[in-house]
Design a protein that fits this description.
mainly alpha, 3 helices, about 60% helix, two-stranded antiparallel sheet
């Protein structure tokens, strides 16, 4: 993703999935950070922990509270888990 902006869960410049022009909503690095945090929470390995720490440091450098991101992600995961049980 690098320097490109992305639009929600649809990804970057995917003509197959939606009409053009794509409205760029946020930096692509946020998706990468979310994925790293999700992997750390669901498959805790030494590599995923180190990767999550690196991404959380990058979030701090961009002025984003990484602990708030982790808490929101945990809340989202718990909500989805509850929906599956109902």
């Amino acid at each position: 993703m690098g320097r490109y902006m992305v639009s929600g869960i649809h990804g970057i410049k995917a003509r197959v999935f939606h009409d053009f022009p794509i409205l760029q909503e946020y930096d692509g690095f946020l998706d990468e950070a979310r994925i790293a945090i999700h992997e750390w929470l669901t498959r805790p390995t030494a590599f995923s922990k180190i990767q999550a720490i690196c991404w959380m440091t990058l979030l701090i450098l961009h002025g984003i509270n990484p602990f708030a991101v982790v808490m929101r992600h945990l809340k989202s995961m718990n909500k989805k888990q509850q929906e599956l049980w109902c």
